[in-house]
Amino acid sequence: MTTRYRMLTRISLIVLLLLCLTVGGAWLVWRSPLGYDPPADLPEVGAGPHQVFVYGTLRSPVVRWLVTTDYLESTPAVLEDYRRDGLDVDTAPGHQVEGELLSVDRETLLELDRYERLGVRYRRVPVKLQDGQQVWLYQRLSDQD
């Protein structure tokens, strides 16, 4: 074997390994049943449809597809009297958070719950949008919760 052939083989193996690690990591984060056990005390979810207000990473169609393996259409929405603070939104009279509204079925809502680590990192709470529509909002759990 020539030195050039060995070098190309090593580079190919490294690229293949990095690709496998990337795909495996994405699967572990977004699709794997490993690493997340929802708390037993979570309330049951009806069949839907459910309206979900998203304000962070779930605004991206690519992230939504990775999480749900489905194309979810969204519409612009505004959440009044809340303010975004990093990964969270908190009540703040006179402020508003711009986001998007998703309409999902029960299975998709549970996939979003898994992505948001419902009961571990976030809670899902009902809120009213600017137009009066009641929707779900993922709100970060504090250290005291």
Automatic annotation (TrEMBL):
One Pfam family cited in the UniProt record for this chain: GGACT
Transferase as UniProt keyword: yes
A GO molecular-function annotation: transferase activity
InterPro entries the UniProt entry points to: AIG2-like_dom, GGCT-like, GGCT-like_sf
Keyword set includes Membrane: no
Residue ranges of every copy of the Gamma-glutamylcyclotransferase AIG2-like domain listed in the record: 52-139
Protein name in the entry: Uncharacterized conserved protein YtfP, gamma-glutamylcyclotransferase (GGCT)/AIG2-like family
Organism (species): Halomonas cupida
